[in-house]
Write a structure and sequence with these properties.
Elements: E1 5-9, E2 15-19, H1 20-23, H2 27-35, E3 44-46, H3 52-66, H4 90-95, H5 100-113, H6 116-130, H7 135-142, H8 151-201
Parallel strand pairs: 1-3
Antiparallel strand pairs: 1-2
Domain SKP1 component POZ: 5-66
Organism: Perkinsus chesapeaki (Clam parasite)
Domain SKP1 component dimerisation: 116-162
């Protein structure tokens, strides 16, 4: 018996096929499959926010993880740790080796298609990368000028990307919280060391 497939039409008009089992990582696709009245293989599911180049990456990730466990990512991320130290499996680490613009596009696709494990993976990678960069470097990479966004642009960005923005923001908050805890612990150690030295010299 041949494997069931779904047809996905991308934003650039390309129709791509994907095994049904892999496609069901996407809650969006799964819901459309469940609601289909006929043979899903005969229908095309539109993905107006996902290009063929990015969908190819999404399909690659979904097909691999049909037979392999997804990464169970630490929350919060460990300070100073690599992705592999935070529960990301080796295959996913290799998968993330792409230009940052492409990574953001995969993250947006995962958000639109509602693929939570892939979204969390991309958010962890972005959060890990962001914490080591300056504001100026981030502005340049994201194409944001010093004047920032207009209120209308900010509203549209938040509306279109609310889900993954929250994921990334939560991870960044966890990172900052852990930084503060680590700094407090180091300050306490220094204070105790100073007290011991003072007692020894008394």
């Amino acid at each position: 018996m041949s494997e069931e497939i779904v047809k996905l039409r991308t934003s650039d008009g390309v129709v791509m096929t994907m095994p049904l089992q892999a496609a069901c990582f996407s809650v969006l696709v799964k819901n459309m499959v469940d609601d289909a009245s006929g043979n899903i293989s005969d229908e095309e599911i539109p993905l107006p926010n996902v290009s063929s180049k990015i969908l190819e990456k999404v399909i690659q990730w979904c097909e691999y993880h049909v037979d392999h466990s997804t990464s169970i990512i630490n929350k919060p991320l460990k300070m100073g740790g690599q992705l592999r130290d935070n529960g990301v499996v080796e295959w996913d680490i290799k998968f993330l080796e792409m230009p940052e613009k492409e990574l953001f596009d995969v993250m947006l696709a995962a958000n639109f298609m509602d693929i939570k494990p892939l979204l969390e993976l991309c958010c962890a990678s972005v959060a890990s990368s962001i914490k080591s960069k300056t504001v100026e470097e981030l502005r340049e990479e994201l194409g944001v000028g010093e004047e920032g966004f207009t209120p209308e642009e900010e509203e549209k960005i938040l509306r279109d990307n609310a889900s993954w923005c929250k994921e990334a923001a939560d991870m960044l908050k966890d990172i900052e919280k852990e930084k503060a805890i680590q700094a407090a612990a180091e300050a306490q150690e220094r204070s105790e060391g100073a007290d011991e030295n003072a007692e020894a010299n008394a």
